[in-house]
Amino acid sequence: MRAEVVAMTGENLDMDAIKKAGDILKAGGLVAFPTETVYGLGGNALDPQASMKIYAAKGRPSDNPLIVHIAELEQLEKITTEIPEGARILAEKYWPGPLTMILPKADIVPRETTGGLDSVAVRFPSDRVAQELIKAGGGFVAAPSANTSGRPSPTMAEHVEEDLGDAIDMIIDGGQVGIGLESTIVDFTEDVPVVLRPGYISLEMLQETLGDVRMDKGLLITDSSVHPKAPGMKYRHYAPKADLSIIEGNEEDVVACINHLTDEAVAKGLKVGVIATDETKARYAHADVLSIGSREEEETIAHHLYEVLRDFDDDRVDVIYSEAFYTPKMGQAIMNRLLKAAGHKNHKCTGGKEMIALGCDHGGYELKQEIIKYLEENNIEYKDFGCDSTDSTDYPIYAKRVAIAIQNGDCEKGILICGTGIGISITANKFKGIRAAHCSDCFSAEATRLHNNANILAMGGRVVGPGLAVKIVDTFLNTPFSEEERHIRRIKQIEEDTDITDAYPEI
Question: Which domains does the chain have, with CATH numbers?
Fold first, then answer.
């Protein structure tokens, strides 16, 4: 059954439709509705079955908590056991608004709503339609974004219809939302408030209000051993259907790099999309170019982000290259969403060239000097992360430095060298998104680029001579990924966090 769509605005409410939607919620049904951030998929937060319906409709992992929306401040005390003073201060200043706070939950809130946690995430939206629906639906509405899990969040009712039109009961069309990014999440279950998801309300704004507020280190550190505290942040979000990469650097270098990558992709028969700004849109050729907004008005970038990603889905592009948007106020939130949409595939560029990360231990130092000569002779940019002599040292130090540089986007590819190349490659491969290939011949170097899209070459300084090593490096750096579907599929399987029972159901 197709969802009923009812149009209204905060200035022109349809109270009959609001009552009908409220009755649907009270009966355990699902209603999508606008907020000032994105469209939410609402269900009765106090009904375990309604929460399970939300997970099922979205295809959302059940350990990813739902945010409970309220429309009266007094309701907060009914679903929490403790409200710290800092939370009261933020509520007074930023509610109603794009702020979610995590607090100890009361027994009235089922664990199906909280993802099995003893805490509850609560928000008081400022959108008038949302407020009236929450009141009509009983006062407590669980509402994640109204999209299929992993897809770009919906900022218009049409996006909701596309993803969930056959899975829910009603969609309230309130037009395009204002902000376009999900709310800031602040955790008050620790001694010091921690930002678990950046949003319109920035870390700086929170610190100005409360003083000591910290960013979850899992959002700042890309080491695979450090995970974001929020369960939902470990999952890929906001992703378009096409492969998305973010290109970082100054404007001239970024434009040159994107145009170069576009030409390479077009030569392979791929349709390319480019996310640009009003200021740079005209500088790109041979691609489907969409402006996300103006850097002079960063709110426009946030406002259009998900819309642009969905537009490229409609255009059926094969690859997307995006500028980076480290804008002054909302840049942290914008880049958080964009990086997750890209699976953290971001590239630093200098004059359209790749940056290569180098690392070695004492056993690889001499061979590294030969590689440096090759890079410099061929005008290839590199960063040397050590070591700096043949004095005995530990290879994991340098493997970690290079892996993190690639994860962060400071470098596109890496070269690691220890005595055998084995230990240093094992270390690098512990980092999410790193595919380090141990090669002692040119055939393997070519194959691992073509088939595995390897981003680190590992060699043994006591195994491979300098002449052969230079040939291996040349092959590795100049062999593009094949972009064949079978290889893309296999790489995704490598990168998935998969329980062993998924592969071996009999266990």
Answer: 4-232 (3.90.870.10), 243-350 (3.40.50.11030), 353-489 (3.40.1400.10)
| Rounded Cα–Cα distance for residues 405 and 182 (Å) | 28
**How many Å separate Cα 197 from the centre of its chain?**
11
CB contact at 8 A, 479 and 489: no
The predicted structure's pLDDT at residue 224: 40
Beta bridge partners of 101: 122, 186
- In this structure, the strands spanning 456-460 and 436-438 are parallel
Q: Are 189 and 119 in contact (CB under 8 A)?
A: yes
Closest C-alpha to 25, from 172, 170, 125, 173: 170
Distance in angstroms (rounded) separating the CA atoms of residues 69 and 65 = 13
Span 229-249, mean pLDDT?
Answer: 74
Q: What's the whole-number mean pLDDT along residues 236-264?
A: 87
Q: How far apart are CA 439 and CA 471, in angstroms?
A: 11
Peptide bond connecting 387 to the previous residue in cis, omega within 30 degrees of 0? yes
Answer yes or no: is pLDDT of 77 > 60: yes
pLDDT digits (tens, 9 = 90+) for 5-42: 999 999 999 999 999 999 999 999 999 999 999 999 99
- Higher pLDDT pick, 454 / 480: 454
Active site positions, annotated: 361, 418, 420, 451, 487
| pLDDT grade for 498, boundaries at 50, 70 and 90 | low
The closest alpha carbon to 373, from 415, 406, 327, belongs to 415
Q: Which of 222, 203, 230, 205 is nearest to 214 (CA)?
A: 203
The model's confidence at residue 220, banded by pLDDT at 50, 70 and 90, is low
Quick one: average pLDDT of 227-250?
72
* Distance from C-alpha of 134 to C-alpha of 18, rounded to nearest angstrom: 9
Quick one: pLDDT band at residue 1, thresholds 50, 70, 90?
confident
Nearest to 143 by CA among 42, 4, 22: 42
Give the tens place of pLDDT for each residue, 350-375.
Answer: 555 678 999 999 999 999 999 999 99
Give the side-chain half-sphere CA count within 13 A for 12: 7
Angle (nearest 5°) at CA 164 between 159 and 166: 130
Q: Following DSSP, what letter does each residue of 384-425 receive, concatenated? A: E----SSS---HHHHHHHHHHHHHTTS-SEEEEEESSSHHHH
**Residue 407 has what pLDDT?**
86
Provide φ and ψ at 286, rounded to 5°.
60, 30
Q: Amino acid identity, residue 179?
A: I
Tell me: pLDDT of 169 over 70: yes
**C-alpha 177, offset from chain centre:** 21
> What CA–CA distance (Å, rounded) separates 264 from 280?
20
- Please name the helix (run of DSSP H) or strand (run of DSSP E) that holds residue 41, with its range, or none: strand 40-44
Residue 244 contacts residue 265 (beta carbons within 8 Å) = no
